[in-house]
Every structure is written in structure tokens, then in C-alpha cells.
Amino acid sequence: MTTQRIVEYHIARLQNRDRNVRLESVRELALIKAAEALEALKEVYDNDPDIEVRKAAQEAGREIYFHHQNKEKSPK
Length: 76
Hints:
By secondary structure, the protein is an all-alpha fold. The protein is built from 4 helices and no strands.
């Protein structure tokens, strides 16, 4: 499975009814450092009914954002 398909899989799971599934996918997206997931994580942060899932999405979004910011600033 390609990284893109894995990211798409986890983004889709952010809509799952089970909060544990959503939490697991948020954590997986953070591990992958998937910049393409930032908008979906923002949606979770803004709208998820579970505070723990919202906090995890916020942390994951920050981690991914800063990872990519630092990557852009590093010498080539």
C-alpha cells in the first residue's frame, strides 16, 4: 500500500463513529507526518464531539505543520 493510500485510509477513518478508531487514525497521521492531512485534522479539531480526539488532532496538526516548516528551512 502506498503512503498516499494509507493517508487517505486514515483520513476516511476520522469520520468513524468509534472515538478509538478516530484517535488511532489521528496518531497514525502524525507518525506519517502527512501534510495532506492537515485540513482533515483541522476539521476534527473544529468539529469532533470528543474532547480527547480534538486535542489529539490539534497536537498532530502542530507536529505535522512544524515538521514540514523545519524541513523547508533546513539547508539543501
